[in-house]
Amino acid sequence: MPYDYKPFPYRRAPGLQAPEPRHDVVIVGAGPIGLALALDLAGRGRRVTVLDDNDVVSVGSRAICWSKRSLEILDRLGVGERCLEKGVTWHAGRTFHRDREIFAFDLLPEAGHKMPAFVNLQQYYVEEFLADAALASPQIDLRFRNRVDVVSVESDHVKIGVETPEGHYALETSYLVACDGARSPVRQMLGLDFAGEHFEERFLIADVEIEADFSSERRFWFEPTFHPGQSALLHKQPDNIYRIDLQLGWDADPEEEKKPENVIPRIERVLGHGDFRLDWVSVYTFQCRRLARFVHGPVIFAGDSAHLVSPFGARGGNGGLDDVAALGWRLAAVLDGRAEPGLLGAYDRERVYGADENILYSARSTRFMTPAPGAERMFRDAVLALAAETGFARPMANSGRLSKPCIYPLDAPDDRRLPAGSRPGAVAPDAPLGAGWLTEELGSEVTLLAIAASPPRTGLRTLQAEAAETLADRYLGDAARALYLIRPDQVVAARWVEATAAEIKAAERALWEEPK
Amino acid sequence: MTLVTEPNIPDADSFYAELLAAHEGLGDDESRALNARLVLILANHVGDRAALSEALALAARTGAGGQPPASPRDT
């Protein structure tokens, strides 16, 4: 059943009538990143205006695999359960060379998390759920068919020109967040350099509707007999839709390859039959690029406007949601007057670090999957040849290292007796807590988590927990007790086995200060 | 330095012959492919990242454009 693209309502902007008062935040782009950021800020009590140049959700086949961390973020924003219910849950991947399985992996071999390792859900559904929540929020003004065509940066605000079906109007805003995608008109209007690598290989992507019931594992093939000498990838999505990626080679002609008469025989070979409906076809090449800085005074970039990765490893949409998590609480604090604008430098530093990690991993995967002639090809083929017979070569077969949030290199109080996985800079691992989950209890505020400990009086929001088994494994290790200071984005800020109120309060104050 | 560059193979001449025999009858491309597989197999066996990095550096340095030795040794 093809997705029903219902247009969102268009309304005449107030600015067409009379000048609007200066806004606090204008977000350009109502894709998953722009909408998620709007909901995050609204949840922190801020009013937000979102401008989008069209009036439907993402058309076609784009982001699919939403990581556990992304699902936790979406859950805090109120759409996690809708995504879980509609999406296809998976955690296992299988890799094949020719017709032989060489490697299987499990992304979440352990229990004790609210969210699964991955949920496959078409980007248009994620946008629909986020847009529904945004439309229901009195804090968010979502303006469709409002296209930004002028951006002028002043010292402490931004002047924006907006084109609508009923004419042009101007806006002023203290902050503009550009969530306007890979081709980011805002980035182009500001003339910013977007440096990186463009890979030559072309891939055909197709969404096909089939009645069949493949299991929900991700499947990747190197040189299968159904597509000799090239790579192929298969993902199951909701509504009986399967996403198929087929490597075409750098000299493929995209216009020819997109034609149904050329696509259909290829898909028939993948599936072994012709019983399917072609829902979407496109041809793309990959890029790995980023802006040097994501913060330019009152203009901030998040998502694909700031950084691009090749899709193997699911780091695009997930990387963008990590940007939202890192930015929302800081921007809200600056607007509240609780922090100086310099705090946004911490967003820049952390997410440049995250983007670089995503770019590094996705470039490595791309190089393995589509190696250049010569040494790259030689070693890639050597790994595949050895994978059949040796344990070491199988995990070297790189069809995409799947997205996990990076661990920020924070200079913060730590205790080596505590487990590595919950150290400062890491996203606080989920664990069962009472009848629910730790991630649900942590919410969106700074929290002092005291495990088997009596916390000192700090005035901070405090959560006390017994050392229940999974919580103890993930947060105590060999220690008998611990205190964790957790940020509004659920990243561990600092931790101690024992600490005074003064030590904890100093660490909390540091959250609102510009990085040194 | 963790990489061993002093003699460490018992009856090295015999190993040398074994290496050549492995390539016998192979074309250029097949030889290159065999060497690539052998590099990965041996790298995994060595395992020590410091030794592997030193080995890569030594291999690069001793290529056709590499530096001559500092002084001649006894023959």
Separate helix tally of chain A = 14
- Mean pLDDT of chain A equals 95
Number of helices of chain B: 3
The end-to-end span of chain B amounts to 25 Å
| General form of chain B | globular
**Biggest sheet layout of chain B:** none
Helix content of chain A: 25-40%
Q: Provide the low-confidence segments of chain B as ranges.
A: none
Q: Structural class of the helices, strands and pairings of chain B?
A: mainly alpha
Strand fraction band of chain B? under 5%
How many strands, what sense, and barrel or not for the largest sheet of chain A?
8 strands, mixed
Low-confidence runs of chain A (pLDDT<50, min 5 residues)?
none
Beta-strand level of the residues of chain A, as a percent range? 25-35%
Q: Please identify the oligomeric state.
A: heterodimer
Class computed from helices, strands and strand pairing of chain A: alpha+beta
Mean pLDDT rating of chain B: 91
Helices and strands of chain B, in order, run as HHH
The count of β-strands of chain A is: 25
Radius of gyration of chain A: 24 Å
The helix fraction of chain B, in percent, is 55-70%
E-strand count of chain B: 0
Which short descriptors sum up this protein?
heterodimer; A: 516 residues; alpha+beta; eight-stranded mixed sheet; globular; B: 75 residues; mainly alpha; 3 helices; 59% helix
